[in-house]
Design a protein that fits this description.
The chain is mostly beta strands. The chain is 0% helix and 32% strand. Strands 1-6-3-4-5-2 form a 6-stranded antiparallel beta sheet, with no helix packed on it. A hairpin with a 2-residue loop joins strand 3 and strand 4. The chain is globular, with a radius of gyration of 13 Å.
Length: 90
């Protein structure tokens, strides 16, 4: 039986430009340094938590491109090993 992981989500609370290094999220629950955030085909890494609900992020992680995002977009939260460049086999 294949292992399954359910990743949590939150939403973006403001528009974000491609060069922004801080994002405002609906909830910082479960976010720590190194946590990965998947948003509109861009992978980000949490650098640190700012004043709640702001999060400092490294943009365009693992070969993804930093891009603009609209408020209310869904953000998927996980560890680095829970995101793949292609579907895993097995």
């Amino acid at each position: 039986m294949p292992a399954t992981v359910t990743l949590s989500t939150t939403t973006l609370q403001n528009n974000v430009g491609a060069g922004d290094s801080q994002i405002k999220v609906a909830s910082t629950s479960g976010l720590t340094k190194g946590t990965r955030l998947w948003l509109d085909r861009e992978l980000m890494s949490v650098v640190s938590l700012g004043v709640d609900p702001w999060v400092n992020v490294l943009r365009g992680v693992d070969g993804t491109a930093a891009q603009a995002h609209n408020s209310s977009a869904t953000i998927t939260i996980g560890r680095a090993d829970q995101f793949y460049a292609q579907d895993p086999v097995g």
